[in-house]
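Quick question, first post here. What does this chain look like in 3D?
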Amino acid sequence: MLSTALSALLALALLALDQWVKRYITLTLPLGESRPLLPGFLELKAVHNYGAAWSSFSGQRWLLVIATSCIVLVLLFLLVRRVVRHPLGVLACCLIVSGGVGNILDRARLGYVVDMFNFQFMNYPVFNVADICIVSGCVLGFIYYQWFYEKYDKCEKKEKPHGNADTPSRGT
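> Answer (accepted):
Ran it through. Tokens below.
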């Protein structure tokens, strides 16, 4: 239970950080301009993303809000119903929820997502704190599902009793 509370607090802190960084970038860096953060590696670049990853579904604001909201609600359901109980699975779900809510807030409020981190050494989409949470949560969720779900969280199926109790009787 403590790990759930800590994961939820971390998710809330990351959501607040995401919103703060987006606000900071919006106020201090004109759209399309950049400034080095880690020279030669990472820069801050103000971008408005009207789509999802790699600008897919660009211009589909409400579709993305609805789809992301459905994912967030399913993960919250899994957490509240304690379907996912292992600390790694809980953390993965909380990270994805945090990132999803951060991007939903932008899309609903602004019509786009504010992105700001740009790798200088390779061609990769500009991203934000919420995206980092989503990707990290997905990686942790994959690890959880591959190595911990079966052992810790999978529901045991009740075995049927052996014998003829379940077979229909035939009249003789």
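The mean pLDDT is 90.
The CA atoms of residues 48 and 114 lie 5 Å apart.
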